[in-house]
């Protein structure tokens, strides 16, 4: 194995440096594990493969965010790209800064292609001709209540559209159903996050109350948990092609128009998947 446990413990990798992505580590450790978990535990189903851009073409993948801190949607999506395009194609996921404070996990994620979520890091990936996976809804969408699990909630964030206009790359919408059923979030409170100081300490703006394994009931999205074996279905939409026009990226009316079109399309895709789902978790 190229990367030893000692390296994972001792290294202090930079979450803002794309060069720390390690294809050998992905090939030997991460990809086989995710393929096994995705196939046999989450019973992954993928649709819309015909809509993928050509191999070697940089693009931005935008998805609905689900599953809390383990984030099965992020890494199962990454495994899907590796299956389709191969591991050598530079693909990166934008991840909340908080996870990089956890020793060992920090290095594992960075080697697998995680970067600190920021516009500058996404720009680095596009400049090197890579694929960048973004979740504009962030932690708030990932920790929304179970009753809102099939709602797109990007909270008006348009940075991914501005990046697409700046670099002239397509936006690929990808939705999933099932990833927010790995536990049940009874409610998620912005007020509690502020009162408890969670927002000030971590930057996370909502505090969820969850039911799941092995704890039964717990607060916050930071406690490690065992995800329920929820069947997860992904759907890849048609790419949205925008011109390379940095000036147009400053036009708020145009950007908002594109934002509403993309979110409407993604909500329609998600609604179709949700209608086919008979039972939570079981699929």
Beta-sheet strand percentage?
Answer: 15-25%
CATH fold name, please? Glycerol-3-phosphate (1)-acyltransferase
Q: Give helix and strand order, one letter per element, not per position.
A: HHEEHEHEHEHHEEHHEEEH
Shape: globular
**Strands ordered across the widest β-sheet:** 1-10-6-2-5-3-4
Main β-sheet, in a few words? Answer: 7 strands, mixed
The second-level CATH architecture is 3-Layer(aba) Sandwich
List the total number of helices: 10
User: How many E strands?
Assistant: 10
In helices, the fraction of residues equals: 25-40%
Distance between the termini: 37 Å
Structural class: alpha/beta
Number of domains: 1
Which segments are poorly predicted (pLDDT under 50) over 5 or more consecutive residues?
Answer: none
C-alpha Rg (nearest Å): 18 Å
Task: Give the C-level CATH assignment.
Answer: Alpha Beta
* Average pLDDT over all residues: 91
